[in-house]
Amino acid sequence: MSRKQGKKKGGAKDQKLKKDLSDTAQDKPESVNEQKQATQTAEQNQSQSNAEETEKTQANMEEILKQGGIRGKRRWEVDINEPHAFWDKEPVPSLKQEVGNDVNDPVEVKTLDDVRKKPLLLPKDFEWFDMDLRDETIERTKEVKMVEINFLCVHKQLRKKRLAPVLIREITRRVNCRDIWQAVYTAGVVIPKPVAQNRYWHRSLNPEKLIDVRFSALRRRMTMPRLKKLCRVNETTVTPGLREMKEEDCEQAWKLLMTYLSKFQLFVDFSLDEFKHMMLPKKGVVSAYVVEDPNKKGVITDFISYYHLPSFVINHPTHKELFAAYSYYNVATKTDLIQLMNDALVLAYNQGFDVFNALDVMENEKFLKTLKFGIGDGHLQYYLYNWKVAEMRPSDVGIVLL
């Protein structure tokens, strides 16, 4: 009797236990979902917290850099509202002045009567000296008679005496006395107001020397043998008929160049005599080559040139000079431009140049990356004096100033 009752009691317990387990099993999915939701909420909160923390850190770093002067203004990045004691009084557009596409006129108009007749005063022990160069450079958008201002050099110690503005005003006076009122010039700094802003690109020909004199640096994970292999150029040129330009080639090459330059918004209208003066090969000054059509004797189809500009290397035990070639004027009518410029690299390398430099003017962008030029940190701004015109793209410029 008691045993039967015990079984009943045990059965009741079993039933109760089964019921509890069943209830627990039914509750489990809701409990898991709640845990998942809680986990997701926590992750979202943590992610948001991390994002806010990162934003605060970046803001703090920017403030520290700003206060420490680390994030300095680059030479080509300027405050357009910053005053310029000299240039604000000259006939050039201000940096904040917008020039419309329909504007192409002088900033101010003067006559000979407005020009002072005596040279500007110089500091004690200095005097003006006239150099007879006799070759004028002419620029054309409209056809405008201009002078090219180049090699304006003042010793740093003398710049404190404000000699640079005096030189600029005096050359302006002398040019005005010849009834010329406009000029074209370049500068590595930003002053009011560039008509175009260009960049220098560099192609290593002797990478070991360039790194040795700190012209360039060996990048991370790059080895010298690998870099030499990367910068290697062909031993010989591949363009049939490519040879050094002679005087009898000049007229054809000049016509090729002037036809080509007319495609651009800003270019020099060379006379034939000026072309000969600037382009005929001169040792240590300029190299120029033409392509003579192999099937038509005497017919010139292409033209390339580069000028020589060596630099002194200071305080180096081995190297005293760095030999740089600068791309000058190039015209490709029959030969592919990339092939032609690759031959220019070969010619420059065989002449002993360490680096070949080029501006992103004209159509140079077509070959820069393909021929392994690297963009440099040097900028070159183009300016027009007493002339306003809408800003141009680098490829609109057809002038290369030495």
**Proportion of residues in extended strands:** 15-25%
* Uncertain ranges: 1-10, 24-29
CATH second-level architecture of the largest domain? 3-Layer(aba) Sandwich
**Averaged pLDDT, please?**
85
Structural class: alpha+beta
Main sheet properties:
10 strands, mixed
Classify the helix fraction into a percent range.
25-40%
Determine the number of helices (DSSP H or I, runs of at least 4 residues).
Answer: 9
Radius of gyration: 35 Å
Shape: globular
Q: What's the structural domain tally?
A: 3
Order of helices and strands: HEEEEHHEEHHEHEHEEEEEEHEHEEE
Amino- and carboxy-terminal Cα gap: 123 Å
Q: Please give the CATH class of the largest domain.
A: Alpha Beta
Number-wise, the strands total: 18
The name CATH uses for the topology of the largest domain is Aminopeptidase
Structure description:
The N and C termini lie far apart (123 Å). The longest helix is centred in the N-terminal third of the chain and has 67 residues. This protein is α+β, with helices and mostly antiparallel strands and 402 residues long.
